[in-house]
Structure formats: structure tokens, C-alpha cells
Amino acid sequence: MESPSSASSPLFTPSIPLATRTVEVDAGPARLLVLPTATRDVISFRASFLTAPDLGTSDDVALGLVGDVLDKGTTSRDRHAFADALDGRGATLSFYSDSLRIGVAGRALRADLPDVLALAAEALREPLLDADEIRKAADRTVAAIRRSRESTGQQAGGTMARRLVPPDHPNYIYTPEDEEARTAAITPDDVRDAWRRHVGSDGFLLAVVGDADPGAIAATVADRFGGWAAHGLEARFAPDAAPTAPGRVDVPIADRTSLDVRLAHAVALRRDSPDFLAAYAAVYALGGNFSSRLMQTIRDEQGLTYGIGAALGGVAVEHDGGFGVSVTLSQESLERGIVAVREEVERFVAEGVPAEALAGVQTTLAGLHVVAMATTGGLAARLLVNAERGFDVGYLDRYPDLVRAITPAEATAALRRHVRPADLHVTVAGTLPSLA
Amino acid sequence: MPDTHPAFESVRTVGGIEELRHRNGLTVLLVPDAAAPVVAFQVTYRVGSRNEVSGLTGATHLLEHLMFKGSERFNRDLGTSVFQTLQSVGGQINATTWYDRTNYYALLPAEHLGLAVEIEADRMRGARVRDEDLASERTVVLNELDRGENEPLRTLLHAVYATAFHAHPYGHPVIGWRSDVETVTAEGLRGFYDAAYWPRNATATVAGAYDRTEALALIDQHFGPIASGPETGDGAVPIEASVTREPEQRGERRVVLKQAGELGAVLVAQKAPAGLDPDADALDVLVQALAAGKSGRLYRRLTDAGLTTSAFAFYPRLRDPGLFVLYAALAPDVTHATVEAELIAVLDEVARDGLTDAELARGRQQVVADEAFGRDGPYAVVAQLNEAIALGDWTLYAEYRDRIDAVTPEAVRAAAARLVSADRRTVGHYIPEASGEQPAGSGG
Fold it and tell me: Are A153 and A324 in contact (CB under 8 A)?
């Protein structure tokens, strides 16, 4: 194989000692991680805390609405004043609710960070939770649910999720009809009750990256979040996947001639499982990027699709996830494409992960690790997710070496343990050829 | 001014960005940023759908796809395709085509800059634009086209642009009309390649933690041997010479798009000046005042009032006159007419009364913050420079903050007033139709 030259000598080692540069302290109820960088003027931050929902109820739907209205006014300023305080600084602050946590994302110029953190604390601790705003948020949610029915990607993905996990699993996705009904049934009092019971400092993590002064930020966080009480609840959910017999579901959607297809099955794998990285690398070689097997064969050789990828999805420390292939296909290529994908996955698993492909993936993942830290937002997100998993900051420094240590035999063993072509479910969303 | 490599001429330095020109005509921009050990390398060609004619719509985009099919040196058979080579070192790579330009970029660990420079230089003149590659890539692009048409906003935008522009190539989608994508030949694509993929029509941008001397040496080593262009005499015809001028619009135009779906949408587009027009900075401030954050007029007037689920404004700054666009996604049970009237009223009010001092201050501060965050990471830098290069003046990026600071309330009002004529308006309605029910197929 001809090897392209790289004329430059390394300016930096690929391994960045984040652990030595990150200041990690307790600030009030928060576990605070501050990483000063050479970036001028700007700071990004990410935070999250545990909400401990009971996923056998509609807790998650109510908490989604809590996340939607936290920035719609506080007891000390209405929604317009709150928005003006942010927009007038060119800052952003947003809240989101996933299955087990509420997250916060923000950015500000250096001088404005204390004010923006104060706004975040105010929104979390003293939200107005106005009934009209809650109703408007519910209306917007219902509209988004209805629009999701037009989306081939959302329908193929949602339908697949329902085949892989039980309703109280964090990766479960409601049917549009179910989610709309649950949203419509939630009252403003339900939302206020969800905030009272589930919004507190439990597992509160805050990562701040950029032109940052760790001491000053710790003082601000301790001041603004000091005394924020914990709710002390334990989350209730099904952590394990529930394997079912594989099958196919078609979701017909009119006027959508590009069809979204998913082939997937559940995997009994956690983010802290000993073979997670080996499985991750193996699946990356199958469908992680443009160089991967599926992209090279299904897209480049056969020209069947614009986009195809394979991934381990929804795998967390707390619960199982899934293995899946996502592909878009035309009506003419639909059945041929599904067969081709299935055959390629079967072939890849049977043959095992080629040493050369694994070596490429190992370099890729190590390089991606560096590239992902090119922005303050990227770094903050990586620090937060790492901390949510319960990993120390040094894990991010060790990660390239852990990836490089995977052998072809380990990758192939993990692949065969977790990827089972015979168990693949298939979902298809779009205008089926018979409807065209 | 730092020492310059003998193959390069220093042109200017603005806002910490250095412009040089290689003796073969290649423009080079250097943007140092040592915050992280990564570098972005980008080549921007001043060719896009603006240069296409009927029968060849979508050709510059299809050519962009074929540029990844390889050269004699970098190709999949050798295990050295562009993707294999750059992704194997963790690079994030891709390319995009837009009205006025096509760009190829890589964001990668700094020590691998040489790989990206070598590959871009190699495919500037060495790409194999072959029929056999086109055959498989055509279906890939048709799949991409179909995916776009699944999205009502994209389809509505195409319909509005096609209605607003009768003669200028901005009227056809960048991805092209389907029949052209189905029939274009490799020879047709090669016409664009041979006309536009030359140093004198390109800008190479390096941003991030590079070593300046080394970066210039790499560029000279790999791009230096390439001739300036297909014709180097004074009589050379620039590729943009054939672009048709759009006749003046003299009356409101309307277009309705019906597609199966759930909730409607309204798009109001006003003919707007070219991106380097004196009004353009004021229109950028207007976009901020209308659409940024939850303080924007569109959010308060429409979304906060329950009329829409989202509403935004955008003004793509293009080489030739384009469109200033307001878009709103309807909330359930709200009519198109209601939202259309509100969108037009919002614009009319600014044209009549201007912005408040608070709105102007907020708009400026948002631009200041956006500018600071626009330098957060080398990819953000090259992406923004890319659009300024396409316009024909990269210093628009370097001087943007000062330019916005100079915008007055009266300038915004006057720019809005010049915009709002109903005779230069195109309105699009997306009307969702109930989809036919069919039982879902299911197998075990």
C-alpha cells in the first residue's frame, strides 16, 4: 500500500494532560471541573443533575416540560427580562431533560460568566412555572410530536426503540399518539410538582472551559448554588434490554420517497463493561465513518445510499443499549439495500475485524479525541459526560492508550459477543414502493 | 510582518489574519490559534450553482462528490482514498457546495497538516472525473436529493427561490433539478473542473496550531508546481462571466406547496441586496433583532403568542442580489394568512419606526459574542472565512465586529425600508395534506 507522506514533525503530543490542567473542587453542592484554555474571551459550560424519575409513569414527560419552561421567567424577573438579560450579553443558556438527568448548556464572554451562572441558578432554584407558559410549552411539544410523524428518521428510530427495550427503559421512545396523549394530560400543577420533587442538587456536576479563572468561578458557584437542596430520590427504571424475536415493521408515510431504514438489536453491554472499547472499535470499523466497511461497500461500491452508519447507541453506565445500522434508501433500492446491508454485517462478523482496519480505527479514535477538544464547548461536553459516567478526568488522558491496546482478537471477540446478525430487527419509514 | 517564503507575496494582514499570494495565483490565508493542538485546512473554489446553466444544474455539487473518488495517487484501490487517509488520523473532513463556492476542508491533529495539504493539491488537477465513478455517485446524490425533498422547509425554500428568480441561477437548487442530476455526464462535470479548479480561482486557508514556516513550505511544495489556470494571458475569461442578471421584479409572487404532512409553514422572501452592498451589514443587525434569542421580535410576536412553534429570519449574503427570508412553522389551528400578515407587519414596522436603542444594543452585543465564539476552534474560523471568500472579500470576516459597531439605527430602518416593497416579495405556503392510511406491513 502506498503511504502518503506527512512532512511535518509533531508540534504537540496527541495526549493532552487534562487531569493536570483541570481544577476539580466542590463548590457548594456542585462537583466543579474548570479547565482554563488559551482561548480568548469566551467560556463554555455544561452541567447536569439527577432527576430520579420513575420511568413507569409520565415523570419523564413532565420533566421534559420542566426543562422547557425553566427559562420562561423566575420569581424575580419575568420571561422577557430573563431573555433580555441573556441576549443583552450575547450569552446563551439552555436546559434539556433526558431520561435520567436535566442538563444545562451555556456560553458567555468571560466578563459575563458570573451573571450567566447566576441566571442559571435562578432558573433552576426559583422558576416562575407560570401556567400559561406551561400550556404554551405543552402546545409546542404537541406540535413537535405531530411534525415528527412526517420525519422518516424519527419514525424509523422510534419504532426500532420500541422493539428493543421495555417501556420503562431509558432508551424507550413513546409512539407519537402515546406521547401526545401523555403531554395533553399533564397539568401545570403536575409540572410544578415534578420540579418540586425532582429538581435538586443530586449528582450536580458543572464543567467550565475557556478563558476561565477557577478560583473566581468556584466562588460564584458556591455563592449562587450554596444551599440548593437535594431531593434524595432514587430513579426507577428497567436497566436491561428485553430481547424479542427479530422482525420487520414498515411505517408508511406519504410523499417521502427517501426511506429511512434501521437494522438493530439490543446489546447487554454497559459503558464501563471491560469489553466496551473493543466492541466500540469493532463497530466503528464496520460503520463508524466514510472509511468503514459499510460506507465503502454499500455507498462507494454499490452506490445504494447517501448515508449509512453503524453504531452502539444508548449504551450507558446505568443501562444496556443497542447495536444498529442506519441507512437511507430510495424506493427502487429498498429491498436490495436491506439485503446488502445484512449480508455485509454477516460477512464482517464472520470474517472478524481485520488487523489493518483495527489499526486505522485506533488511529482515528485517538485523533478524534484530540479534534473533539478543539472548542471550549466540545471540551466542556466531554468533561461533563466523563464525570457523569463516574470516570476520573485522567480517563480522558488514558483513553488513546486504552484504544491502542485493543488487539484484533479482542475486537473480533467483542464483535461476535455483541453483534448478532440473525437477531437484527428491521424498521422502514417512508413511502413504500407499493404506495408510490 | 514575518519573513515570507520566496514563492509567496505578502498581500495584507487584517485582524490577525495574513493574506499571501503564491506566484501561481493561489491565495493563502493564515489564521494562527494555538489554543488546541489541531489545525484546519480548507480550499475554497469560487464556483458553485451560480455558475450552472439549464441542463447542468447540480453539476458543481456532483463534481464535489466525485472529487472524493480519487486520483492516481489517492484512491480506494490503493487504500489511500481521501477519506481513508485523513480519517485514519482522526481528521474530520467533508466538502460543501453553495451558490457561489465549493469548499473542501479537514480538521485534524496539527502534526498531520501535511496530509491535508498534499491531498488537496493533488486533487486540484489530478482528480479522476470518470464515467464509472459518476455511475455509482449519481445514485448517492439522488438519494441525498430525495432526503432533502422529505423536508418541507427545504422543498418550500426551493419553490420560493425558483419563483423569485426567473433568470438568475439562484433560482435553481444547489443540489440541482432531478432530471439534470440523472442525465449529466462526466464530460459535463469535467467542464466545471477544468474551468474552475485552478490556483487563481482558489483560496487555501490554514487555521489553528500550525508552524508558519512549515505551513508555507508545505503549500509551496504541493501546490507550487500547478499552473495558475487554463489561460494565463490577459484575455482569460473568468468563469463567472456568463452569469445572467435577474430582471427587476415588478409584482408580488406566490407559490403553494402541498405535501403530505401535519402542520403548515409560511415563508416570506424579499429581494435583497448583494452581500457586499452597503446595506448588508445593517440587514445582518436586522436579522439579529428579529430572530436572535427569545428577545427577538419574531419570537415575541409569533412564538410567544402561540401562533408559531418557531420563527426565524435569515439573509444569506451572496455575490449577487439574493433574498431576505422570514420563515414560520405554524402552531396547530393557526391559519397561513394570520402568520403571513404578522411576518409582513414585523418587517413593515422596522421599515417605518426602526429598532429601539435596546434592540440595537442587543443585536450588536450578540454579534460581538458571536464573533468571539466564531474564533473558538479552527473549524469555526475557516467556515466563516469560507463565506467571506465566496463573496469576494475575506476581510468582511476580519473586520466584521467593527462594521457592525458602525451600523446606526437609521441605517437599519433605511435598509428595511428599501427591502419591504410588496412588488419585490415572494410568499410561499406549505400546506400539509392528510396522508392516505395504509396498514403497516409487519413480519415476524
Answer: no
